[in-house]
Amino acid sequence: MMLARGLLMLSLFVVFSAMADSSPRWEMAKSQDGITIYTRPHQAGLVEIRARMFVATSYGAFMALLEDSPNIPSWVDNVSSSRVLEQLSPTENIVYTRFRAPWPVQDRDMVTYSRFEQPPGALVLTIEDAFHAYPRQPGYIRIRDVKVTWTLAKLTNGLTHIEYVAFADPGGNLPGWLTNQLSVTSAFNTFQGLRAQLPEYQTRVHSQVRE
Q1: What is the mean pLDDT of residues 51-66?
Q2: How far is CA 131 from CA 82, 128, 135, 204, in A?
Q3: Which residues is 89 bridged to in the sheet?
């Protein structure tokens, strides 16, 4: 009986391991100026993005920057405006963001639910699609299927590792290859902007963040 149970557990382990190994692998798309961007196939011909860098920052400074809505266009690539529609709790918000697009591509917007938490040794911010929380706006195509995770972890050398994993469907009739190319460029530009802006927020204290 014990042998049979052991063989069953081993079989399950092999099956689950095989399933994990079958997931698409991350491929490096760009590595420059201390920022590394990876992609992997996700759905409908579009890719998921992973961006990484090391920077000197506190957790509170990072959250203060992300919650400074009027300043979002200064560092998030192609954002024209961003505002909190509703604060659900001290760590949860519904946010509306507009993106400018080059002519003749139509501008985009998105509605998201965001929440941050602090597991041991890290700060994690998750952003998810909240399409139905705000009505469609004239002149904008609504971005859908948004799923973003920011993960920060402090290192012993004084730096903080920042990782961003994201997917979004821009909608409309944009070809997948163009969307994927723009996603890599946008992630890189955003990380450059993030690194440039963070020093200005290092004196900020966030009431809900533990350092």
Answers
A1: 98
A2: 15, 9, 8, 31
A3: 92
Mean pLDDT of 69-73: 97
- Above 50 in pLDDT, residue 93? yes
- Residue 180: count other Cβ atoms within 10 Å of its Cβ: 19
For the chain, the three-class secondary structure string (H helix, E strand, C coil) is: CHHHHHHHHHHHHHHHHHHHHCCCCCEEEEEECCEEEEEEEEECCEEEEEEEEEECCCHHHHHHHHCCHHHHHHCCCCEEEEEEEEEEECCEEEEEEEECCCCCCCCEEEEEEEEEECCCCCEEEEEEECHHHCCCCCCCEECEEEEEEEEEEECCCCCEEEEEEEEEECCCCCCHHHHHHHHHHHHHHHHHHHHHHHHHHCCCCCCCCCC
Residue 37 predicted with pLDDT over 80: yes
Q: pLDDT digits over 141-163, tens only? A: 999 999 999 999 999 999 999 99
**66 vs 21: CA distance, rounded Å:** 35
Provide the whole-model pTM: 0.87
